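Posting for a labmate who doesn't have an account.
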Amino acid sequence: MRGRWLRATLSAFPTLFGERLVIKIVDESLLAREFQELGMSKDVADEAQRLLACRHGVLLVNAPPGQGRRTTFYSMLAHLKGRGGATS
């Protein structure tokens, strides 16, 4: 995939029958989206932007597996990066 960054993560965990390995390969270019593209209502998207405008604090994103935590996180980072915010 030329010109695109892929992120690979490897997780290992024990099971009754030995270890299980999980490999996730994510095309990060597909993750950074506008909040309303994620299915957020305008009110929720506005609140997310308001929270991201705060200079200090911690934002907790919690959801069951497969519900878009990573996509939401990358969208928030892209929003901060677009306005010159700290993303470290």
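Reply:
Got it, the structure tokens are right above this. Residues 35 and 46 are 9 Å apart (CA to CA).
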